[in-house]
Amino acid sequence: MLLSVRNRNLLILHFTVLIWGFTGVLGGLISVSALHLVWYRVVLAALALLVYFRITKKSIIVSPRDIFKFMGVGVIVGLHWVLFFHSIKISTVSVTLVTLSSVTLFTAVLEPIINRSKISFADVLIGLVIIFGIYLIFKFEFQYLWGIIFGLLCAFCASIFSILNARMVKRSRPTIITFYEMIGAFFGVSLIMLFKGEFTDEMILSGSDWTYLVLLGVVCTAVAYVLGVAVMKELSAFTVALTTNMEPVYGIILAVLIFGKKEEMSTGFYMGAIVVLSAVFIYPYFKTKIENRQKQLVNRKLH
To answer: How far apart (Å, rounded) are the C-alpha atoms in residues 230 and 287?
Structure first.
């Protein structure tokens, strides 16, 4: 039986989110530091996207002003990834992925400030629930304090570049934005490495590191991004948002399967994780219901 166009795209989206969830596992498997890892990742992702543009014969020419904006956001993307992988290396994949879910909380606060819009009651309520979940994780997994802090900083950066990308994608192609963001991330991470004197022999990769980095840069970044954008033509924003929330779930399951006992956490961690992930899952549905009710009230007043 042939799948419908919608179901096929839904399967592709779940596969894409599974790939994104696998990035945390790769971060734990690659032996080089977070800075070196991200440097290689953005180089490989940019090259893969350049090949994509050559194959599809699409132009990469944009205005100097747009290049400056895209690359500026790319610096934030690069910092986000450095914080993400550093958090994994000093704690666990599970801790990092759950704290990364707090991006919903930061977006609830930052989006109205950046876009100069009204703060949503639904956003604030979900944000408070997420704070409670993260508090539980802090309480029971205090040995991973710095991993949690870096995970939260990573989520903060993710929130900023997501808000900015949402504005830029209305005017430019997502693949073009990503291409220049990868270049911006490359320059940003290279400057940090230059300042810290990180261009050393420690950058030399083993055979397994090369394999994992190609998977990370090409499959988990460039290919996954193209697939993620493609399905948006058929699926609603609500469906995409809800499915994307599976990333930490897939990531934690993969981490437990691959790393075993290293990823075993306390009961308190799982209590906090359930609170955070439940809030993240409920968020799109809850917010849509409130917005629909508000629209109905406005329509009644107009009639």
So the answer is: 25
